[in-house]
Specification:
Number of helices: 19
CATH class of the largest domain: Mainly Alpha
Structural class: alpha+beta
Largest sheet: 8 strands, antiparallel, barrel
Shape: elongated
Helix content: 25-40%
Radius of gyration: 30 Å
Strand content: 5-15%
CATH architecture of the largest domain: Orthogonal Bundle
CATH topology of the largest domain: di-copper center containing domain from catechol oxidase
Number of domains: 2
Low-confidence stretches: 1-23, 524-539
Bound molecules: copper (II) ion
Strand order of the largest sheet: 1-2-3-4-5-6-7-8
Number of strands: 10
């Protein structure tokens, strides 16, 4: 049995005097107690709830004290901050409290926070402050309150509570020293390493957003689509690859059908155009995980300020889908960096590994593994641009409301918006550079078997034993069926935003009635008519 401050203070309040309270305490001490001191320690890590609490707490907080006895000895009243760090599955809380400047300097902060989350819940946290003399000088009791708490880390969190001086006798009147700490929101990459206005204007144009989404969508979904959907997409020129010999990206033959070549090629093509508008260097290595506060306080501060735009946005929660929430949070751990990303970094620069792969196999492997994970590891919680409210499952892929076209929609997890995010270009640069490693590997192991060739204005490779296809797919521009001009000058019907929305609707909608109306809008082109005839004629 331990006598907590609350319990003790309650005792004082009830009895109205210190002596009876002490007597009351004594009675508790001498009551027979069933608990014993614990045995050997067990290996404990934070459970999911604990990890979520840790993730809500980790970071930089602005703190102010209020009340008659506000403040901490030796610290100014204004400009104070708290740095808090907790290991990924950790239960120990480490932190510092001082002015924002001093926390970022080489000087030792005046207060260090010691605490733990063992058995903690957000409604009641209690940590100690260790002062410069090495003594535990204050106790902080607080509760965590989050805006949009259900989404985890998506809104502002506040910690509010009381600070108690520990060198003050409990017999003295209670001091009035409250505090409120507000968590700083994670600064997005676009605030730190913005794309220039020319490039942005090109990227956010409906045409480009829809193109990038549709290019990924039809090849991602193709193997799952029913024949009427496939035919409708063929009808508007948006089948992935040559008609009737499409190259899906996720079906059972994805690694043999050349879809990986399309993946590498389309992004190299896109990078070339973007780099003509802005210098977009590739990452040389994947950015490192968050530095530990206790070892590198200045690095910790820079990381949470996202100073170079490569820090990981915190994970978020998707209500009712624990599996997805857990996946998002696992993907963002340091362990995942060490267990997966570093392995990819090594393998995809290893000639012995690369020389066994065709370009299509390599592209497919990168696309489905590393590439998807890069997108999600660096993704921030998706938000509705109209009010900033988190939408954990992101925009519906067939929702084309105008608000989604704004600059701030640069969610990395959706090809409609991912290319608007600066991080996209730096990691796609890294992926693109690996194609050159692949070429060098083949030059070393079987020289002359892969030869360079410019295709569609892009430095590329001739098809052959190691390159499956000679016609990498860029959408209707390379495999469309029509040169009929669309509403926009210099564009075919197929590249018109309305046609692309139609194609996306066909790809994603499952409502029979809505689909029937979409099918009616598919123009009956000559090839489509021919196709139908061939299938129904007895010959
Ligand atoms: Cu892409």
């Amino acid at each position: 049995m331990k006598i907590s401050r609350r319990w003790f203070m309650a005792g004082l309040a009830v009895t109205g005097a210190a002596v009876p309270a002490a007597y009351f305490g004594h009675r508790e001490w001498t009551k027979p107690d069933p608990t014993i001191t614990p045995g050997e320690a067990s290996f404990d890590v934070a459970d999911l709830a604990g990890q979520r609490l840790a993730s809500a707490l980790r970071g930089v907080w602005d703190i102010r004290f209020e009340g008659h006895d506000a403040g901490l000895e030796g610290l100014p009243a204004q400009g104070l901050q708290v740095f808090l760090d907790i290991g990924q599955k950790g239960r120990g809380v480490c932190g510092f409290l001082d002015t924002a400047e001093r926390l970022r300097s080489g000087e030792t902060p005046r207060y260090r926070i010691l605490g733990d989350l063992a058995g903690a819940d957000a409604a009641k946290l209690s940590w100690r402050l260790v002062g410069a003399d090495g003594l535990v000088s204050y106790e902080l009791e607080m509760i965590l309150d989050e805006v949009w708490a259900n989404f985890g880390n998506a809104g502002k969190g506040t910690l509010s509570g009381k600070a108690w001086r520990l060198d003050r006798s409990l017999a003295l009147p209670v001091q009035d020293n409250g505090f409120v700490a507000v968590k700083r929101l994670f600064p997005e990459a676009r605030e730190r390493t913005p794309l220039n206005p020319t490039l942005l204007a090109w990227l956010i144009a409906p045409e480009h957003r829809l193109f990038h989404q549709l290019w990924h969508a039809t090849r991602d979904k193709w193997h799952t689509l029913a024949k009427d959907k496939r035919d409708a997409l063929r009808g508007i020129g948006w089948q992935p690859g040559p008609r009737d010999n499409e190259r899906d990206a996720r079906g059972p033959r994805k690694d043999r059908n050349g879809s990986g070549v399309d993946f590498f090629f389309m992004h190299r093509h896109m990078l070339g155009t973007a780099r003509s508008m802005q210098d977009l260097p590739s990452w040389e290595y994947f950015p490192l995980p968050q530095p530990e506060l206790i070892r590198d306080r200045v690095g910790f501060a820079r990381y949470f300020d996202n100073h170079d735009g490569t820090a990981l946005p915190p994970p978020w929660l998707a209500d009712g889908d624990d599996e997805y929430s857990r996946w998002v949070s696992d993907l963002k751990t340091a362990e995942t960096y060490e267990s997966n990303f570093q392995v990819w970094e090594s393998q995809y620069r290893d000639p012995a590994y690369l020389a066994n792969l065709t370009l299509g196999q390599f592209g497919s492997e990168v696309e489905l593994g590393l590439h998807d994970w890069l997108h999600m590891r660096w993704a921030s919680v998706p938000r509705d641009p109209s009010n900033g409210q988190p939408v954990p499952f992101a925009r519906d892929p067939a929702d084309f409301a105008p608000r989604w076209y704004g600059l701030e929609n640069d969610f990395l997890g959706d090809p409609f918006s991912s290319h608007v995010n600066p991080v996209f270009w730096h990691f796609h640069g890294w992926i693109d550079d690996r194609i050159e490693d692949w070429f060098r590997a083949h030059e070393r192991f079987h020289p002359g078997e892969v030869s360079r060739l410019v295709v569609n204005g892009v430095p590329w490779f001739a098809s052959g034993r190691w390159v499956e296809v000679d016609d990498p797919w860029l959408g209707p521009d390379t495999h469309g069926c029509s040169t009929t001009p669309g509403l926009q000058r210099g564009k075919t019907v197929e590249m018109d935003p309305e046609t692309m929305k139609l194609a996306l609707g066909i790809t994603f909608l499952n409502d029979e009635k809505k689909l029937a109306s979409l099918f009616r809008r598919v123009p009956q082109r000559p090839w489509y008519a021919r196709n139908l005839k061939a299938k129904t004629s007895p010959a």
